[in-house]
Write a structure and sequence with these properties.
- The structure holds two protein chains of two kinds.
- Chain A is mainly alpha-helical.
- In chain A, 66% of the residues lie in helices and 0% in strands.
- Chain A has helices at residues 3-6, 19-24, 29-57, 68-103, 111-130, 156-184, 197-228, 242-259, 262-276, 283-296, 312-340, 349-372, 374-380, 384-414, 420-447, 461-490.
- In chain A, 63% of the residues are buried.
- Chain B starts with 6 loop residues before the first helix and ends in a 21-residue tail after the last helix.
- Chain B is elongated and about 100 Å long.
- By secondary structure, chain B is of the alpha+beta class.
- In chain B, helix 1 (7-39) packs antiparallel against helix 2, helix 2 packs antiparallel against helix 3 (98-127) and helix 6 crosses helix 9.
- Classes of the chains: A mainly alpha, B alpha+beta.
- At the A-B interface, helix 4, helix 11, helix 12, helix 13 and helix 15 of A face helix 2, helix 3, strand 7 and strand 9 of B.
Chain lengths: 537, 392
Amino acid sequence: MSNTTTAHHDDHHGEHPTGLARWVFSTNHKEIGTLYLVFSLAMFLVGGAMALVIRAELFAPGLQLVNPEFFNQMTTMHALVMIFGAVMPAFVGLANWMVPMMIGAPDMALPRMNNWSFWILPFAFTMLLATLFMPSGAPAAGWTLYPPLSLQGGNSLAFVILAIHLMGISSIMGAINIIATILNMRAPGMTLLRMPLFVWTWLITAFLLIAVMPVLAGAVTMLLTDRFFGTSFFNAAGGGDPVLYQHIFWFFGHPEVYILILPAFGIVSEIIPTFSRKPLFGYTSMVYATASIAFLSFIVWAHHMFTVGMPLGAMLFFMYATMVIAVPTGVKIFNWIATMWRGSMTFETPMLFALGFVVLFTIGGLSGVMLAIVPANFQYHDTYFVVAHFHYVLVTGAVFAIMAAVYYWLPKWTGHMYDEKLGKIHFWWSTIWVNVLFFPQHYLGLAGMPRRIPDYAVQFTEFNMISSIGGFMYGFGQLLFVYIIWKCVRGGEKATAQVWEGARGLEWTVPSPAPLHTFDTPPLVEDNVAVHRDRLT
Amino acid sequence: MERNANLTGESKMKRTNEMIVAVAVLAVIVVITWGVFAVGDNMPRGVTQYSQDVYQLHNIVLGMVTVIGILVFTAMFTSIVLHRRSKGYQAAKFSHSTRAEIIWTSIPVLILVVMAVPATRVLIDMENTGGAEMNIKITGYQWLWKYEYIEDDISFFSALDRESNRARQLGSGINPRDVENYLLEVDNRLVVPTNTRIRFLLTADDVIHSWWVPELGWKRDAIPGMVNEAWTLIEEEGVFRGQCAELCGADHGFMPIVVEAVSPEAFRAWVSEQRQGLAEAAHDNARLWTREELMDRGHNVYQAQCASCHQGDGSGLEPAFPALVRDGAPTGDLETHLYTVLNGRDGTAMAGFRDRLQPEDIAAALTYARNAWSEDAGEVVQPSSIGSPDRG
């Protein structure tokens, strides 16, 4: 992607491989960041194509296009590809590009490991996607791989599990690298409480990753031995417990949800002050709120499984703990609005996506509060209401934030301004159709449509049709995003170093495009104003 | 903005301006919200005290989060309308307010407490499964339900009805709109008495299922090797439909639940009718069946139990679901076939049908599967050779 952008900037580090070798052997945080982002975009399109298969089949009642087994493979693979292939690598790519530049470091702390972290991923996803072409088919038990159902599949399960292990290794190495970079390589004067919020949210996210990826690895390894080596961890007939898997899985799964959203909080916390021309409101409370959300994420896992039959006391505990999350999350939303309040706002594409994030993520958060209410959860659980909820937080939450970040930093990466008019069209097109896609799913869930079904009773037809139309319009609209990036990489109006009038922070002090090597000599950070503009902390 | 006005006057004007815009924004958002609620569906009120409690709880919480959302968005859009550079608005400099932060931390806590109190009360009520007047055991299978009336010693399977099943095949050419209660009808309904406290014991035979009838107000997972409890007390007669809610394999979308609530008197009559039917069936087991009888019954059993994987013509969906017939002959010998049908095959989706089906159904399905698409295989399996399902 940024072949043209960085090629002529390797001025002072002697010979640099060119062509394919440049990317395969790169240890440069910017090049690896680009690799992550391009990979993530490719996976976003692959996972999106799978979603369109799902929405096409659900356009009308009856089975028209695919058989139920393949439908289940699509729902399973769509989730795995989007979570592990699109959203997580996108955030790691953004961290690679921006964290060193935001803290005034010359590169990531562990550049060779950085290369390895990325280059594992194409192999992991080749293996995962190859299961689609294996005799026993891709996994079809849902991305949660609940046993005993997941153990009924064929030998392709082994490939899925190995792929998940590789993704886990990649994520853990990436997380170690980010923590090592942030804790050791900050420029003089860049104290922890002067760090930009994006750096803070990534630091906390990295700890979450290290804590829970091994838990996922443990869970799927137990699946592997149950399936192939005769153990009975999750087989009641052999003394095991199928519900144990769900507890272990969601002990990973809930922090994972915050791994997918905390960096998004960081991005939005960068963008809103820039385009409001006003410091972020309540910087320290934002940091503390992020940390509390991360802590709470470890003690709410069972709210994903209220219907498995838990003791009353356990259900009450998980209900209350889950509701508490609304408090720090609310603080964040209020702080963003207070940042805008009496600012001097302009509405370039990154700001539009950030504002779209605040509104639509809030809707997803509010339906999350509803889901926490256990007696009502007995109705909502495993219905389209849940599907609507988590797509509001993941698509209009995480994905919108990633798009906001791409528009925000693209001029810094490429040295060119993107096409503002097309960017705005992309935003409005996406925002309208994503709501047409997901909002009716709330109604479907409340009316009684379970999730993960390939066919439905005829009373659900209208809202499914509307949702499918929204899905296709939103999905094909993303090709515009690809075109805008392509166009920006190829050329455009020259970007200044500052790019945005209201932008503050070290990344805006280096030229655009950012040279391959930045901050070989660390900058001196004199006060908060240079970084997050908050004069008082 | 007038740069010359004195500071207090200017800030007062700002305030008034903000109030006016806020009211207008609020009106717009309220109208949009009203529209969103007007076009949508809501949760059914249901036919039990519990479902109505849940319905009420849902509406209370939905109302609260809606109001919160409206207020948050009003503040945000008021700011978006007013505080923009294109109107020459100069950015303020503030970046903290301890008072504001305390307010918007503590008010949500209070709101959550208000939500938690009724939620706790309703949950405690749901979890109290004592005082049952009758017990029904529900077992989930791929992909049908088994119901056992513990006190009345009745048990039967309940699967997707034939018409829906025909219409839902890929490329069936049947319009689902022409099928009554498409995907929400079964061959044998769960008949229960009204105004009777019924305890359900839920488990599963193969994978995890989840038993859900929205009108009763809850769903509960049916897990192999575990027994879950739930209860209901239905106040109105009627037919209430639901579906399996936990992904359980290829035909997860095709295992509906139909509860028929009748008066206690009608229920007693239904029970004695069922028991008589059972006695006749036991007698039927022992006699010799003709090939035509077996083929006839076998066709129905095969379509209901086997066709979703092995396909209506026995061609299967290789490799997950093997073909039963190849080149006009059954793909394996009868003995292995019978053994597989009775006991299932480990590590595959093939379940054992020993406890699922009556001997005459197993015999009929086998006879059908070995003869329907084969030239003159001539193998006939008699119910008496299968043995009683209770023998285990």
